[in-house]
Amino acid sequence: MPGGQGFAAVAQHLARSESGRTVAVKVVHEEHVSDERFRARFRREIDAAGRVGERHTAPVLDSGPDDDPPWVATGYVPGLSLDQVVRRHGPLPTASVRAVADGLLRALKDIHDVGIVHRDLKPSNVMLTVDGTKVIDSGIARALETSAEAPLTSTGMAVGSPGFMSPEQIQAQSVGPKSDVFTLGSVLMYAATGRLPFGHEASNQHAVMFQIVQDEPDLDGVDDPALRALISQCLRKDAGQRPDVDTLLADPELVKAVASRNTLLPADVVAHLAQQSARLLDAEAAPHRAEPVDRSTVGPRPQPGPPEAVPAVGVPRRRNPNGGLLVGDAR
Mind telling me the catalytic residues? Predict the structure, then answer.
């Protein structure tokens, strides 16, 4: 679900369902609740995201787009973001980058097939798990652009993450699925080298965006010819000259590279993932009891809210203003 970990208009939490499952909950901040255009877009995006297959994305489990405040709960993806992996373990080997590319392309295909353009694909939204690569934020946060769309475009600003934007995003042009293909190239470059293809030594975000629009990508550090060619195709300035997701998935070099799936990630990354999964299982298996809720202070709600839950073990508790949901900040 687009938007990543830092969208200011949504509070993101970890919570535990009544059955003990760990879930991710997003709750819209109060200042956006009264915006009816926002609510309508939020509802549409939840419906669209719910149609995306969950094999490569986080599934929508429940939602309350008409509640005050609106909220949505998705499956929690137990893994490490690509950003965390590169920062802690270094760039990935070529075989792993190719496997990540395959997973991201399949995720983007699922997203595009239901009419969503991600528009904020970046390493913090790419999750590496024991089951493969998954993309989070594949539609929900697009609603956040509704409230800000007019002032942003009127001042020439663009929505997205500098360094992981397409030229058409930066120039506030029409954005389609091939914009995500361009961003994919930047993500794969980061996975392979730990740096970006544009603005590696730029002093500010404006310089980075200028280079994305005007300069050729710096692919130094990508030694494998086939991977370099894949990234280069993705990073073509003209969206019409970029391959689409289906074309890239049919690339014989990529197909051959991921045919054997026994070397997807380095051993140290797999060990880190296993440790994290074990901690999550321990947390979900731990006994838990919801704190009592003083219903006299909550008041009746016209719409059913999210079920009462308690946070996973070790997560700071915090009461959601939606009444009764005990959650912890998602980190």
Answer: 120
